[in-house]
Amino acid sequence: MLFIQAEPDQAPWVEAQSAALASLQVLAPRTNLPWETLPGATALNSISPRIIHAHKPLHHNKGDEGPYISWGSSACPCVEKVQGSSVLPVQVERKITLLARNLHLYQDAELDYECVLVIEGQTVVVDAFVEPDDMNPSNFYITCQLHKYTYLAPMEEYSAMVYVKRRNTFHVDSSPNLYVTLYNCSVGRSDCSRCHTADQKYGCVWCGGSIAKCLYSDSCNEQVQQTCPAPVIHSIEPLSGLLEGGTLVTISGSNLGQKAEDILHSVTVAGVPCVVIPELYEVSSRIVCRTKSSSGEKEGLVSVKVSGGDLRSSSQTFSYQDPFVMAVSPERGPKAGGTTLTISGRKLLTGLPSDLTITVGRVPCKIVSEVQSSSVHCVTGSSGEAGSYQVTLHYGSTLRHLHTPLYSYTHNPNITNAWPAKSFLDGGRRISVSGHNLDVVQKPQMLVNVFQHKSLSENRRKKRRRRTAEQGEDGEWTHRKQTRKLPDPVCCKEPFCPATQFLELCEVNNSSLILCRSPMVNSSILDSKITVHFLLDSLCFDFSSLSSQAFSYEPNPVLKPLDPMKAYRYNPGSFIQLEGDNLDLAITKEEVVVLIGEGVCAVKTLTKNHLYCEPPPQQPNCRKCEGSDNLPEFTVQMGHLNFSLGKVQYDNLSSPTFPLEAQIGVGIGASIVALIVFIIVLIYRRKSKQALRDYKKVQIQLENLETSVRDRCKKEFTDLMTEMMDMSSDLVGSGIPFLDYRMYAERIFFPGHRESPLRRGLDMQECRRQTVEQGLVQLSNLLNSKLFLTKFIHTLESQRTFSPRDRAYVASLLTVALHGKLEYFTDILKTLLNDLVEQYVAKNPKLMLRRTETVVEKLLTNWMSICLYTFLRDSAGESLYILFKAIKHQVDKGPVDAVTRKAKHTLNDNRLLREDVEYKTLTLNVLVQGGGVNETQPLPSKVLDCDTITQVKEKLLDQVYKSTSFSHRPHADSLDLEWRSGVAGHLILSDEDLTSVVQGSWKRLNTLQHYKVPDGATVALVPRHTKNIHHDNHDYIAGEKTPMLEDADEGGMKLWHLVKASEEPDLPKHRRGSLRERERAKAIPEIYLTRLLSMKGTLQKFVDDLFTVILSTSRPVPLAVKYFFDLLDDQAGQHNITDPETIHIWKTNSLPLRFWINIIKNPQFIFDVQVSDHVDAVLSVIAQTFMDSCTIADHKLGRDSPINKLLYARDIPRYKQMVERYYADIRQTISASDQEMNSALAEMSRVSAATFPTPQDSEQGSTNSSECFVFQNYSGELNYLVALHELYKYINKYYDQIITALEEDTTAQKMQLGYRLQQIAAAVENKVTDL
Predict the structure, then answer these.
(1) CA gap 419, 534 in Å, rounded
(2) CA distance 395 to 1043
(3) Which pLDDT does position 1095 carry in this prediction?
(4) CA angle 45, 49, 52 (to 5 degrees)
(5) What is the reported pTM?
(6) Fewer CB in a 10 Å sphere around the end CB: N or C, the chain?
(7) d(Cα 455, Cα 443) in Å, to the nearest integer?
(8) What angle do CA 163, 165, 169 make, to 5 degrees?
(9) HSE-up (13 A, CA, CB side) for residue 17
(10) Which residues are in coiled coils (predicted)?
């Protein structure tokens, strides 16, 4: 048993370690191990206790302790040091003697020990012999027996740790510096000179033989060579130098001496002594010397003689040269620089190319090409003043001047005007650029920058690369980093280099005019923001500052062929008329070149749809004759566009003779023609009167149409209100199918994901699961550090590879991670928002929160969604659901094309079915097998006879399961529609089968009309069996988002339902007979747009109800809205923003744009419903109307305005007043204090902890789930640790950058945030850290 007597000032420590001592008292008697080797013994040694053996008496008299008491760590058994030399050669047997103390305390008579050396991670165990010191009994000598040691690392020395252990038991304590040094003579000494320079303590010798090498003297079995061989020169650099000398020549080789003194005065270059620089000398391998001057140009070998050895020369020759500068081209350029100079001369490549610099006057000229003997290219820098300057080549300190001609810096070119401001996509339109001093420009270019609008799909596939630029005077630009693309991205007055650029070289016409061709771009530019610049060497000019109109691109023009079947017959003296589209959008008639063979067809008129030109009087020759007819080709050139529209054949009416008989015939013919013309005039007058009567009929039809639209709106609205009242009564029993909070949060946080990332488990080996989970819990705790979280977010956002999609994903993961601490989450949101405001105030504050480009913007979206969920369920949800059902009901009342997704009843003109389709409503008696519905009681359901079978099944399911949410209904694909007639008459109906109508390459989908199903028929929805599934070369699935326009099978069959998508719309049967009727149908297609008005009038009340609920302050405004609006007002005040429009835009971007638009367009985020394409098209129009109502700017509407905006043109001003009143009322209400908001957030955090449980919450369970119906316990489905693990993936990806950011922050260093993150990395991923 052991006792410890501590010094008085160490008593508290001893008390604190009582538990450890107790364990030692138990362990020591049971084992034969000394107490120093037990856990905690080392710590106890550090306080210098007295070690007293229990079987010996304890003497309290200070002078009487004698041999019974030992003091401090020196009393413990310990191996102290290596006796003798600690340097050991490799591959040579050597003993190691160690000095140890106090081994007698082990009371072990056998003294059975082993020496252990740790070499390159491997342990080498050697038997040891122990003998005590006769003079001092406490000292022992441990001798490690003979052994050959070695290591593989390519290093001259290797320090190996040594320790001693009892055989097969424990280690004996060692001093910290107990190492032996292994050395290898061969490493780093590849030649004789290096070997001889080794330290004498190593005993290295140059061992001869067939393969000479440097070895330890005892390992050499060959003759030892005391004298080294002659030097060998491998290379010299450079191969030339100036006559004046001063060129540093580097000589590389082997055996180049053992010290600088060996070759100090024995190096010559081309016969001229070369002064060795001792500081740059490397033993045996490198000599650096400075050449002396030469009397003339010469060349020769480089020679080296080592002291006491032979002289050796190089195989390469060195030349003394006198470079001469002859000319510079061009001889002038703008003072802004950027001009590429070509300097020609003789022997310009002298010395190292890196030593050559060029100046024009005192301005550096950057070398941009490989230096040649006869020429070198450089780009001039910017000069402060205009004038003539001398071109100078600097070879180190030696200069070579170009005396004549001098290079002249001129005044900078300046652009004052540029026109025109439009171009077609294919470019090539001539752009005239006027200004001053333009003839000094060497390389003028026209640059188009494309800035893509960001969307979710784009965020998936694009990673934008930022390239910063520094802007100088006079429009100068420089770019720091270039990546080859198109050609090299150029940052010209832009904060970041755009991802897509298009460039076109221009031509200098004279000092005041440059002619450019607009660059060719792709069609994606039409939906993107563009900027256009002119690059004049290093100067950059923005097109928008040179013209009152911004430059824009228009769609390419389209021209129809003259005659697709044969050559066009032209009657001389007339004009040729061309038809097309978009002809005059971006070009004038003077710029259009029309050719007929080699002749020019003069353009007389150019409109949007027509081009008229006057051909030459005689038929021109063909330019590239093809075929046997030798007819000229008719071509039209519009910039880069070239249209070949067919061949032209002139009608030749001339004849060489005109006999009398022919003259008489002509007279008779003329009389007949006059009679015919008279008859035609009579017929024309009659037809004109008929046309006038037809026009009046059309006017009457339009008036009747307006009346019918009003009547139809009234009737449709009445019917819809009746249906909605029935639906409202149904809702009383079944309720609105709201999603639970878990599904709502997942769809808001992770839109576009088929399965929430939080539903996945931790994918890892079970043996590491516990360690990883502990690391993730530590990460959760680290996220509670505000400094760490803000540093983490800012560091990620500063990385180029951190895409907008990644930002939104990380924001949602952080939302889940902090969901149970919403007060802290709100504080982080406020901090990041303040940083965002400061960022936008410096640029354009009106653009803030416009898009989701940062983490804080997505955090705001999630925060609003969390705080307004209760308001959605209690207030706005009912109006939104009724509007959704009204839209669905109204759309389903009319035909919907299953292939093109166009509907008769819609608000979106792009999804409007413009054709008249004959249909009627059928009432079917539906029987359902299973699903809780009694098959013996058929349910009457309404469908259309033009519906496809899949559409019929979906409508029947909606009516049969109207009280069941969508996710709990059977899917239409899992059921077959069976038509039952009589007792045994059962027929399975399908979209495609052997009876489908096939016309050429078109196959029509089957409808109830096709099967001739009568009104009142009985049908049954039966479970689908494999034998009833028809795979007739195409699998048609209704409800897909993408219209099925592609070929469906190997035979190229294309499906159609109501209209053929790629052909002209078919006319109804009752209007096919008359050509006049067909022409009239084409002339007034806008008649069908009245269907939009009818749909709008029918839904007006439901839209008004929804907007009123959202924008009403009659009931309490959600606390989060008031709090956040006050926060925006405070931010505006802090940054001196007094413009009310800016504050209005901030509020609009934070609430309507960020939350309400998302909910209105996606009701599936809050309800358990399916939103079809045609319903989504209507909701998009309503959402856009709501967004337009929240903007302050007035929308100027005209004939070319989108029809969707024209529909609600009269309603938007009323809605705008509602929005302004809503914002004003919120501002006038009592401010929401931080205490109130924190209290509300704390309550939400408490009840939401069950939805996104932390590891601690998961252990405690949800005890308060019954207090709020909104949140439930989903700990089994939502894995909180998965969110943390997903976050850690980003930490791992940008680990070095995050650690660097934390180490650079003083506060973070004090809080040891970097150290904590390293601990997490070590636990989660076994990452090697600096711990």
Answers:
(1) 12
(2) 71
(3) 85
(4) 110
(5) 0.48
(6) C
(7) 37
(8) 150
(9) 22
(10) none
